[in-house]
Amino acid sequence: MSTIRSNWVNFLRQYGPIPQNDNMYDETIQSIIRKKKVTPIRIDMEYLDELVDNFLNENPYSVILTGTAGDGKTYYCREVWKKLGGDEAIWAKNNKIEKLVVNGYNVVFIKDLSELLEEERKILSTMADSIMGIDNKTVFLVAANDGQLLETWKMLNSTYNIIDTKRCIEDLLVDGKKEQNGFLLKLYNLSKTNSATLLPKIIEKVLNNPGWEECEGCSLNSNDETICPIIENKKRLNEENNLITKRLVDLLTLCEINGIHMPLRQLLLLVSNMLLGHPDIRDKLLKCSDITKINKNSTTYLGSIYRNIFGENLSARKRNSTDIFVTLNRFGIGSETNTLVDNILIFGEDDHEYNELYEDLVHSDKQYGADKVFISEKKAYLEGDVTDNEQFLEMLKSQRQRLFFVIPENQEERLKLWNLTTFQYAGEFLDQVFRVLKEDKRVKPQYITRLVKGLNRITTGLLVQDNDSLILSTSGNYSQAKISRVLEEKISVAPKRGEYIKFELSDDKQKLYLTVSFSNDLEPVRLNLQLVRYEFISRVAEGALPGSFSRECYEDILAFKSRLLKRLVDRRKADGELEETQVSLKLIKVNDKGVVEHKKLEVF
């Protein structure tokens, strides 16, 4: 057998972060597929059947597909065109506008709204008439980046229909809705597609592509002395109950809760780089012809999937200009650690206290764990035989990155998995709060009470221990003073008389809120509780100083406090309390146990 040069690997490589990644653009992918004779990556898209059904309906609506670059808008248009009977050869001509007759309707496809010339934009007047129900025999399917959608409509000569249509589009974008009464239009914002849900679908399609069959006859797969990191990475990504996919889904879910969306194009780039990344070869992505070279140079370990997830195969400039790697590296995985993990990695081979964990987590992985280069560098580091520790420290970083994806679920708590990230409370936030709510279950009280304790410390500026009530206080005339000793009200965590403090999800179950209610008659006050704020409040509750972790979060919480105090005034007005001439001030005092007490001061 000989080394195979796989067309599939070369094709997959085009999706990665290389200078000419033509596969990133649907307009060119078909010609590459025909040239390389490979089976394309086809993802089951969420709205495809819904779109096709719309245009086959007796009364179809016009459709706008919007979102960020790389969300799959052109792919959707092409697939709808094909399923409605359109000729692929005609579509491949890359005309900006195509037309198709379906059930007596003229369906107009605009592949990219921003590419239309001024003369071509006149067709949008027809679209406005169609949306307003005047031209009921023409409908449109339009792809448009969200930043350019409204700008293009603003360029048109204003007619009543264009003005109304533009206003409708703007309302749909702002409200996050698909339709509006009185308009024959559906708007799909593909940026709302959940990247955490999409990634496993992409991984499954890539791993099961028939192109991998080319690798079965390769000599590198039958020789114990060599290793092909491409195949090794594929095996690890394809393991049963795979932790790599699971923990990537966790990270992307946290991003989605934070309002950070990764488009399809970036997810494809990630998967390609995970499998093929290596820093020592051209374009930093492996070809079959590179494998012999890296084996000879003993640098196979640098092709580790665990490094590639974070773009470690790329230059710092390239990594910092690629959205998916910028986003994943914000978690600080590899740079953050805990004492137990580092003791296992550095001393575990010789120290009986850590030896069992070392065997399971490091020594058992001869390719990317206890490879001979890491063992050699670690020995030199411990014996003080190196003048520059930089290489070993970089390898230690890579080992921490690997451990984040290999620590078994039953060892997560013991090894403090999320201490390997910037966000120590991320696992709790995700599994014990967010996902519990998504399953319509009750969150344990301990997570609410800790947040209440943290909020009390931030808003009062005092080291209080109270966690059963939210303390609202001021400095007398200034609600955002660093120290607030005038007690205005306490809101009980336990529900009573319309008061409550609880976690809630948004209607689409994509955002988490901390909700505070003052009474049944008033709108509750909600704090958008994304990961950074949850981490900030939790750390303050455990002893961190409010201003030391995040100045922005600190100011956000004080703004939340101001909204709470305003709602308190609304309740007092409703109850007639503000009409009393005698005012009783309650001055906060913290006793030696950290519990808030108060002393009344009568003011006439």
Total strand count, please?
Answer: 12
Strand arrangement, largest sheet? 2-3-4-1-5
Share in β-strands? 5-15%
- The residue-averaged pLDDT reads 89
Spatial extent as radius of gyration: 29 Å
Low-confidence stretches: none
Tally of domains: 4
Distance between the amino and carboxyl termini: 98 Å
Largest sheet: 5 strands, mixed
What form results from the Cα inertia axes? flat
- Helix fraction? 40-55%
Give me the secondary-structure category.
alpha/beta
Total count of helical runs of at least 4 residues = 26
Strand-helix topology:
Blueprint: H1 7-13, H2 26-36, H3 48-56, E1 62-67, H4 73-83, H5 88-91, E2 97-102, E3 105-110, H6 123-131, E4 138-145, H7 146-154, H8 160-175, E5 185-189, H9 195-207, H10 229-237, H11 243-257, H12 264-276, H13 291-296, H14 305-308, H15 316-319, H16 323-329, H17 339-347, H18 352-363, H19 372-383, H20 390-406, H21 412-415, H22 426-438, H23 445-460, E6 469-474, E7 486-492, E8 500-505, E9 512-517, E10 525-528, H24 531-541, H25 546-549, H26 551-575, E11 583-590, E12 596-603
Parallel strand pairs: 1-4, 1-5, 3-4
Antiparallel strand pairs: 2-3, 6-7, 7-11, 8-9, 9-10, 11-12
Helix pairs in contact: 6-8, 9-11, 9-12, 17-18, 19-20, 23-24
Explain this structure.
This protein is an alpha/beta fold and 604 residues long. The protein folds into four domains: 7-41 and 194-329, no CATH class; 48-192, Rossmann fold, CATH 3.40.50; 339-420, no CATH class; 449-497 and 531-603, no CATH class. It is 45% helix and 13% strand. It has helices at residues 7-13, 26-36, 48-56, 73-83, 88-91, 123-131, 146-154, 160-175, 195-207, 229-237, 243-257, 264-276, 291-296, 305-308, 316-319, 323-329, 339-347, 352-363, 372-383, 390-406, 412-415, 426-438, 445-460, 531-541, 546-549, 551-575, and strands at 62-67, 97-102, 105-110, 138-145, 185-189, 469-474, 486-492, 500-505, 512-517, 525-528, 583-590, 596-603. Strand 2 (97-102) and strand 3 (105-110) form a beta hairpin. Helix 6 (123-131) crosses helix 8. The longest helix has 25 residues, at 551-575. It starts with 6 loop residues before the first helix and ends with a strand.
